Amino acid sequence: MAAKFSVNDKVLVETKGSKYEGIVMPTLEGQEDVLIIKLASGYNLGIKLTKEVSVKHVGKAEKGKQPSIKPPFRKNLPSISIITTGGTITSKVDYSTGGVSPLIKPEEVFLATPELLDIVNIKKIVQPFAIWSEDMTSAEWQVIAKEVAKELNDPEVSGVMVTHGTDFLHYTASALSFILKGLNKPVAIVGGQRSSDRGSFDGGMNLICAAHYLKSNIAEVAVVMHGSTQDNFCYAIRGTNVRKMHTSRRDAFRPINELPLAKILPDGRIERMNKILNLRSDKGKVEADVKFEPKIALIKYFPGADPAILEYFMEKKYKGLIIEAAGLGQVSTNEKQKTVWTPTLKKLIKAGVFVGFTPQTIYGRIDPFVYSAGRILNEAGVCYLGNMLSETAYTKLGWVLAHSKNLEETKKLMLTNMAGELIEQILPKAFSD
Amino acid sequence: MTDYQEIGLKSGIEIHQHLATHKLFCPCPSELRQNKPDFTVKRELRPLAGELGEIDPAAIFERKQRKYYIYEAYDDTTCLVELDEEPPHLINPEALHIALLIAKMLHCKFPDIVQVMRKTVVNGSNTSGFQRTALIGYGGFIETSFGKVGIQNIYLEEDAGRRTAETPESVTFRLDRLGIAEVEIATAPDCKTPEQVKELAEKLGMLLRSTGKVRRGIGTIRQDVNVSITGHPRVELKGVQELPHMPKIVDIEIERQQDVIKKGEKIEPQVRNVKEDLTSKFLRPMAGAARMYPETDLPLIFLDSNYISNIKLPESVESVKGKLQELGLSPDLVNQLASSAELPMFLAFTKKYPKLNANLVATTMLVTPKEVKRKLQLQEFELHEDIMDKVISALDEGTIVKESVSAIMEELAKSKQKDVDSIISKYKLMSDAELKKEIAKLQKEFKGPPDKLIGVAIGKFRGKANPQKIIELLKK
């Protein structure tokens, strides 16, 4: 019968005809009847724990030493601060257990990317929390924004890097774009699509290019990640017009409706690609205006969508909705259809709920004047948000609602460009491959 | 003569064999491509901090040299998995089946649960920086005429990219090979003579081919030989191309080890590369306890013992050979056929044409096409099964003679295997009456010495008449 044993124990296992010696590895929940051991060869092997199996405890595996890193200081290099928040870029496989976990010490980032220390001095590393990005809420954005502002206001700091999980990285990027007021230095948001324990870690070049970005004069919140599937350059993309467009590729982050702010080579060369840029200045202080209304939702209109789903938000006293509308900005306005949306939308707006439309095509802008449906909806009080990305509209709405007194003001603020999110001139080049 | 027992020779091999199925963790074909790649991708691999957390100075040095890798890929046979842009798909079930079959043929035990591992690889041959590999069997054996040899482990793993070019700053790999499913068989160091090593490699090769489920051709099988004598730790010899050279390679390594011991040089386990002259060159130190960690993107694989006991084993090569001998085949043809992909076709023909000489069937199938290929200097020549059937059926009916077969095949090769019936009928035998008439005519016209007439007649009617019949008619 199986004896008691725990992870990292050295055990001798005997079953019918076979003997194994190895180190106990963790198993997943629901697989308690399974023993996974690491053999001397490094291979793992699993044994079903039946009555015939005997497990003898023979010792304990040696634990690896924890690294100690003191980043050196170089006088001639500018300094940056790093806020680490979790995600793949700061996670690694624990070789003894095989699980992917956040780095124990944020300093471990340099182990995977020691060249960073030839580009900048790391003044400070702050780790307010370490979570996967899908677990983030507006409360975490507020914490990050406060840390970023604090570091930016340190005169010795040239710029601030935020490392982040990639799934919802673009939400945080746009949220920071609205929360940080008076931005006068660069802020780079960086993620990785491959973890740092593998040779093909893509976050390394992202960190290097982000460090170069923080030395530049571009005072914008930008996502800095791979610009192609190759390890040849990164793009710095405006935090309000960026989206994760692929589940797994290195170059998943793409600018939408505009060109990247800059192309950054790992050797430090920076090529500006966008004329609309806020530049570095020594004047003023950065403020983190973190008030945020969390009672908002982002929903997608789909064929035959029942307008009754909107009632839920009214009952639960939501303050605003962003609806991803079809094509140029349509939902059903046909009174003969059971699923007509207009009456319910009117009801919501009358109750003081903000309703904003964004393009579910992702690229392009919506326009209420092309089709009669658009005109009817516009008339009903729906706010057409132009080219604004749904995710950006969502974070902007949370900020705006916390800063406006009534629906009229909310509408006005939503249609006022704050951080490059409303693009007047969409260039043809912004939609090629 | 070296007394191998006295010097304490211990030797074993590792065989890597490609499996005849698509790639292990994606649906791309296992096809090595010769045409120009459609696109290339430039990547770098980052030095990994040691498990203890120190940054390896050598790794940083290498990094400063800006070493990068170029991967060659194809629009239609490379997917995001090989490019390290998508997680691996679930393990190819056919590859797992073939690997388990091989392990079962080698009398292995099976783990209850298989976990795919990542083996760190730093030479750039894997886009991910590691090779995926899984232990699927262990503790088996294979018989040789010198005694049993243990099978330590059998792994199912993905092959690496194929090195196609190198500059001081970069190495180029082609991704056609990356991800091809292969089994690695590691034997125990139970071989006590170099001859046994060679036999072991032959036996394992034959066993693999007898499954009918392994890839054939250049680059689809690779052998490494492990050699150690008393006083010298294990040395792994890579790049052993031809099995007949194996004993010589082992002998040369034994001498080298004896020399090193005698000179009192520092003795280390190491990996060496076999050169063309069969001596070897130091390649790298033997990897310590390999850095392995689980492939976290894949679930555990539970092996069902019923599934394994239901895997049907192919007939052993020995028993196939016995059957072929019973058919009266020459020993040479028995050996050629027993491990040939043509075996099922041959058996079908001998069943269909039981009166036809089995040696003639085998020669027509295996030997003549090779001769034609060589004579016409063709890249490839293989008759389609239905065309081969027409030729053999004509032999069976006696409408053509065996002397005509190679001429028929030459014409078929030239016609790209078209107009089969008209080509065969050109070589049809003359009827008895026709032959009688022609021979009478020849006898009348022939002016040379009478004893030369037989030779001239046989030459003139080659492929048109049975020589035996010609002699008979001339005697009359």
Structure at a glance:
The complex is a heterodimer of chains A (433) and B (476). With 433 residues, chain A is an alpha/beta fold.
How does this model look, in words?
Chain A has helices at 109-112, 116-119, 138-152, 169-179, 203-215, 308-315, 342-350, 372-379, 390-401, 407-414; strands at 9-15, 18-25, 34-38, 44-48, 54-60, 79-84, 91-93, 100-102, 121-126, 157-163, 180-181, 187-190, 221-226, 234-238, 242-244, 253-255, 262-264, 270-272, 287-288, 296-300, 320-325, 354-359, 383-384. Chain A is an alpha/beta fold and 433 residues long. Chain A folds into three domains: 9-60, Roll (SH3 type barrels); 79-288, Rossmann fold (3-Layer(aba) Sandwich), CATH 3.40.50.1170; 296-414, Rossmann fold. Chain A has an eight-stranded mixed beta sheet, sandwiched between helices. A five-stranded antiparallel beta sheet of chain A has the order 4-3-2-1-5, with no helix packed on it. A four-stranded parallel beta sheet of chain A has the order 20-21-22-23, with helices on both faces. In chain A, strand 2 (18-25) and strand 3 (34-38) form a beta hairpin. Chain A starts with 8 loop residues before the first strand and ends in a 19-residue tail after the last helix. Chain B is α+β, with helices and mostly antiparallel strands. Chain B has three domains: 4-25 and 88-160 and 179-308, no CATH class; 317-426, no CATH class; 432-475. Helices cover 36% and strands 21% of the residues of chain B. Chain B contains 16 helices and 16 strands. A ten-stranded mixed beta sheet of chain B has the order 14-13-12-11-1-10-7-6-5-15. In chain B, strands 2-3-9-8 form a four-stranded mixed beta sheet, with no helix packed on it. In chain B, helix 4 crosses helix 5 (246-263) and helix 7 packs antiparallel against helix 8. The longest helix of chain B has 18 residues, at 246-263. Mean pLDDT of chain B is 89; it is low at 50-56. The interface between A and B is large, with 50 and 54 residues. Strand 4 of chain A pairs antiparallel with strand 4 of chain B, so a sheet runs across the interface.
